[in-house]
User: Fold Ribonuclease 3 from Mycoplasmopsis gallinacea.
Amino acid sequence: MRNLNDYIEVVESQIGYEFQNKELLYQAFTRRSYSIEEGGENNEVLEFIGDKVLNLYVTKILMDKYGFQNDSDEFATRKYKTEGRLTNLMKRLVNKHTLSSRIEEMELEDLLYMGKGDNKQKRHQEASVKEDLFEAILGAIAIDSNWDPKSLEESVGMMLNIENLLDKNFKEEDYVTFIQEWNQKEHGEIPVYEFIDCYPKKRDPFDFGFTTTYMRNYENKKYLVKLSLSTPRGQKLYQVFSDSKSEGRRLVAKEAYDDLWKHDELWTINDECPEDLTLQNSISTLHNLAQKGYISMPEYYIPEEELYDEDGDPFWEVTCKVKSEDISWTASWDSKKQAKRYAAYLCLCEIFDLEDEYENE
Assistant:
């Protein structure tokens, strides 16, 4: 374990905040087990404060990025960022894995003050302990800054490295997949990428029709990758220089994705509703919505044994829950499989605001 005394400046640089009262920073790194043995305060109350600070300022950052006031001066979010998607994104940004991973990346867990038992068990390596430390640091910043909004927002953004996390909301290869799905849905065809070899004879970037703003991106790159898409604004050309074809395809797909998002030309959840929603495709449709990030993954609750009605006839009762949308439906059918399908179907009816076509069956 390292000594925090030797790393104060490093820690403050990592979290984007310089403490006036260094004792608060020490407290943030002090586990309860240490304070029991050595006396003094621990970081538990700071964890509580930091948890609230984190949720508030991540919400603000998301709304600054995805929210706007419409023509009627009402507050709205980009079409692509539905409430369900924002809820899922929020969960990913503030969950235990994200916070503990960021503490590891900043290499702060080795600076914790812990009791002998915790040290022996290497508790500093546990995800929950690193999560607690992340929140405690934010709590300490809140107290030290007298709840200064600017300091708190900057520290939340810097500690989370939030722009990078938001950029990774899609896995790198998913930009390519998304653009392919978008183009197939809009135009019924797979988009075509054009790869132009810049070697072996180095060509002038002006040969590609670029202005001087592209000069710095051209230096020592092997390929020019182009992608042309038909959008509601007309035909749009996206192009990047890259060291490899795979990287170039990802980068140009991301350029296209960012442009479509900027102009509100991406899909909403209603665009995902199949033309013919049935029991047979209900489970797969609900699962696809979750995979694309519109909703949380559905959860099914299936009893171990069948039930019996007043006439003694057996039936199955299955519940489907979509927690991100606060939706829960229970369906009954004479077979377990059909009951599960019907429960998923009822959830989809609420999501898409559809009538239940099977209500009287």
The chain has a mean pLDDT of 84. The longest strand covers residues 223-231. DSSP finds 15 helices and nine strands in the chain. The beta strands are 67-69, 75-77, 193-197, 223-231, 234-242, 299-301, 307-308, 314-322, 327-333.
